[in-house]
Every structure is written in C-alpha cells, then in structure tokens.
Amino acid sequence: MNALDVKHDQALARVWREVEADPLIRVSILTGAGGRAFCSGGDLKTYMPWRRQLAQEGNESTISFGGMTLPHEITKPVIAAIQGYCIAGGLELAMACDIRLSTADSKFGLAEVRWGVLPGGGGTQRLPRLVPVGYALEMILTGESITAQRAEQIGLVNRIVEAGDLLDTAFKVAQRYAENGPLAVQAAKKAVQQGLSAALQDGLTLEAALQRQLLQSEDAQEGLKAFAERRSPVFKGVAS
C-alpha cells in the first residue's frame, strides 16, 4: 500500500533535495507503485512509533513527512498522479503537491482520529485551504474516505482520468509547465503559496517584488525577445 516506514520516508526526502538542487529538473511527478494505492500514509508499526518517540523527546515539531509537508520545501511544481488509496499521510503528500490527477477508482481520506492522533503532516491546514471548511472538517473529524468523484466535486482533485492514461496525462501537464520560464513558474508558485497566508496587500507586495526580480533575469529578456521575433523562447533558468 506504499506506506512509508522511516527508511523510505527519509529516502523520499533525499529525492526532493536532489530535485531542488538540479537545475535541469523543472517539474516532478509523484505516483505510487503497483496501482493499488498512491500511499496509505506512515507505517503504523514503524513510522508512528518513531514519531511518538520524537514527540516524547520534544523533537517532533520540525519533522516533514516524505520531505515535502513543511511549508515551501519544494519550490518547483509537483504533480500527484493518484491511483487507488490516498489516505492519511498519503493524502497529505498529495495535498503538498500542486496539482492532483486521479483515476476513478481512487479513495481519499484522513483516518488519523480513528487511531487517537490528528492528521499531523499538514492535513488539518492544507485540506481547509483546498476545499470548503465544512467538507474538510467532515473528512477530518469522521476519518471517513470519499470517492474520486466526490474529491473532484469539492476541489480536492483537479481532474479524473482513465487509469491507463494517468501517467501520460501527468507527463503532458508536466511538459506544459516545463516549457514555461522556470524562474517565473517557481516565483508564481511562491507568490500563491505565501500569499494565501498573508493579507492581500502583503501578497501584492510580494508579487511585485518577485516580478521585479524576474524582469531583471535573462529568462525575461529571452521571453520578450522571443515574443517580438514570434518564436518559442529558450529559457535557461538563470537570474541576472
């Protein structure tokens, strides 16, 4: 069910650090192996006891599930390609992604309250930001799962696709992102993410500051030149 034990949790975190450090990577796709589950969360026999020990030692607050559930850890776009069970920490991983594509047979839920804990990988914070608060509370407080169709209705999932087309669709979306200016894409993601938790004026100030930075970049110069010459731009992802 692609549950993460401590070893695989830390391995996934290493992957994201490599993604961030590699200038040739502009977008990533996160998916589960096997088709039965995207991810069923943290392994209850190994991962949760480790987290409990850290909590008892006072060292648990800065732990990020899979290296991606703390704010602003991944600056590049991430697409979740979901098939099967996407529950508990698995849903928290999916919500930490920027776009969620799902097959019709997928299930979504945050079941942590059933085991005496809360969705501690961002579930209580990201879900109400993605769907209406009442729907978020219903999922969080009951611990019950919803269908992919319901997830799409409330805005948790961007799109439902055929199982055989899931990765192809994800790659097509990724290609669209990768064709755009990488500095601009990352700046736009930052503006949206940080703006959501700020007052409107603060968000507008951040947006303006990021735009000033972009206008001084080689990519902006190339984009304007390509537009004038009626050709596709060749971005380098290099700031001046």
Question: What would you say this structure looks like, in words?
Answer:
The protein has 240 residues and is an alpha/beta fold. Helix content is 48%, strand content 12%. The strands form two sheets. A four-stranded parallel β-sheet has the order 1-3-5-8, sandwiched between helices. The protein has a four-stranded mixed β-sheet with strand order 2-4-6-7.
Put the structure in a nutshell.
This protein is of the alpha/beta class and 240 residues long. It is 48% helix and 12% strand.
Pick out the low-confidence regions: none
The CA-CA distance between the termini, in Å, is 46 Å
Sketch the topology as an H/E string, one letter per element: HEEHEEHEEHHEHEHHHH
Q: Write down the overall mean pLDDT.
A: 94
Strand tally is 8
Question: Largest beta sheet, briefly?
Answer: 4 strands, parallel
Strand order of the largest sheet: 1-3-5-8
